[in-house]
Write a structure and sequence with these properties.
By secondary structure, the chain is mainly α. The protein is built from five helices and two strands. The protein has a two-stranded antiparallel sheet. Helix 1 runs parallel beside helix 3. It is elongated, with a radius of gyration of 41 Å.
Length: 141
């Protein structure tokens, strides 16, 4: 094991404030030096104050929340969740609709371009050849 480094009063007091009076709760690297310093009058005084604080903290009790408070917290959390969920759903729906509009505009533009540049000279639409319909109407007359 490593060698024990001497503990000074400031470090000992800081450790006692942070970890309490039981040296067994302190960091492993500090315990050996702390145990030696704890035997001094200054170490005993610091641990005595830390022990009083530990006892005071241990005696503190917080009552559990009432059923009314629990219900109120749950209700508010649920309302906030629902609001966020609904807003996200609406934004998502709007985004999908917008994407559909954009896709439709792109397809209409591409289709229009391809129809205008038809090399066969036949009048066509997105639904088929218009000439064959008009010719059949003329033949019936």
């Amino acid at each position: 094991m490593g060698e024990t480094i001497a503990m000074n009063p400031e470090r000992f007091a800081a450790l006692a404030d942070a970890f309490g009076a039981q040296i067994g709760r302190w960091p492993d690297a500090e315990r050996a030096a702390a145990a030696v310093f704890a035997e001094t009058a200054q170490g005993k005084e610091i641990l005595s104050r830390a022990d009083e604080l530990d006892a005071l903290l241990d005696s503190h009790w917080v009552p559990p929340p009432s059923a009314n408070l629990r219900a109120q917290v749950l209700r508010q959390a649920t309302e906030k969740f629902k609001k966020k969920y609904v807003v996200r759903w609406q934004v998502g729906l709007a985004g999908v609709g917008f994407a559909g509009v954009i896709a439709g505009m792109i397809m209409a533009t591409l289709l229009d371009f391809s129809l205008k540049h038809n090399s066969a000279g036949v009048e066509t639409t997105a639904f088929g050849d218009v000439t064959s319909d008009s010719m059949s109407l003329q033949e019936e007359d």
